[in-house]
Amino acid sequence: MATSKGVLADFLAWRKTDPAPRNDISRPGEVYFEFEGWGTFLGTNSVANQNKKFRSYEEAMAFLRLLKITSVKHYRELCSMGIIPADIPKSPHTFYSKQKSWISFPDFFGK
């Protein structure tokens, strides 16, 4: 199974082939009003990071406190196991700092 980056790279390489197909749509977002993003277009269903919707700091923190997370390493392990839902960022310090709501990992984990 191809990764979303691999599929996108394949598509971008294909559209540069010579001779390119006459019906080549290299920028579908500019052609189709119903274009929902590359993940949908390529069938990978991935969502660009800037388009992801995350829980508020307080909502994420309330959920995480129930898990009794002991460290950042523990948090990352839970992310990779799929225990942390997709609507909580894998790099919370980066996302919530931009939202001006980040305090610290101990606060986020309820320590």
The 3D shape can be described as elongated
Count of DSSP H/I helices = 7
Main sheet specs: none
Radius of gyration: 19 Å
**Which band does the percent of strand residues land in?**
under 5%
Number of strands: 0
Helix content: 40-55%
Summary, kept brief:
By secondary structure, the protein is an all-alpha fold. The chain has seven helices and no strands.
Could you characterize what this model shows?
- It is built from seven helices and no strands.
- It has 111 residues and is mainly alpha-helical.
- The chain is elongated and about 60 Å long.
- The chain starts with a helix and ends with a helix.
What key attributes describe this structure?
single chain; 111 residues; mainly alpha; 7 helices
Secondary structure elements and their pairing?
Elements: H1 4-15, H2 28-31, H3 38-42, H4 57-67, H5 72-80, H6 92-98, H7 105-109
